[in-house]
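Researcher: Here's the sequence for the chain we discussed earlier.
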Amino acid sequence: MSDVRGVLVTHGAMAQGMVDAVRRISGAPDDALVALSNDGCSPEVLRDAIGGALGEGPVIVFTDLGAGSCTLAARLSCADRDRVAVISGVNLPMLLDFVFHRSLPVAELAERLAEKGREGVRILTAPKAHVDRPVPG
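Model: Thanks. This is the structure I predict for it:
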């Protein structure tokens, strides 16, 4: 079985920056994760670019906003493919887990990554309780 490939589709330069960070941290090969931006793309052009990046074999497409143009284009590009998952709300912990677990079946990997993404969001320092209260007077 071939390793799952990743396609990251975001607004602006976010995708390239995240892919660069993942490679620097993990040493992942160049073909593990591809970055696509919606900059200057019509919906049709973005959809075609995603379709071209999917290739053969299992793929997970990561997008930034669940209701954004990147996610819509990804869902349309992947609608007729059996071994492709689309995950929105991408973050760095999710992508790092992806590159280290690409040998898992794509359905199992998609579930794992959604959970890792949620776990990556934490409040580490909370504001003091009194700061949001109205000031009397």
